[in-house]
Write a structure and sequence with these properties.
There is one protein chain. Helices cover 61% and strands 0% of the residues. It has 64 residues and is an all-alpha fold. It has one domain (2-54).
Amino acid sequence: MAQEASEKLGGGVTLDVMRPLQTFDSGGRARATGQIVEAMAKEAGVDLDKAAQIVNFAPERGGR
């Protein structure tokens, strides 16, 4: 592609591309990190729902 673009545009063209994992699975890393945090909290006996409420990260459950 870079060669064809260089020929058509009359100048040097370089392409900066990402590997498919970085492009299409960016959420996969977040999910994996979330699972690790959940496992560590469970092992330590931490209630993640309560911790998330304390830092205003999760909505309160109830009559809303």
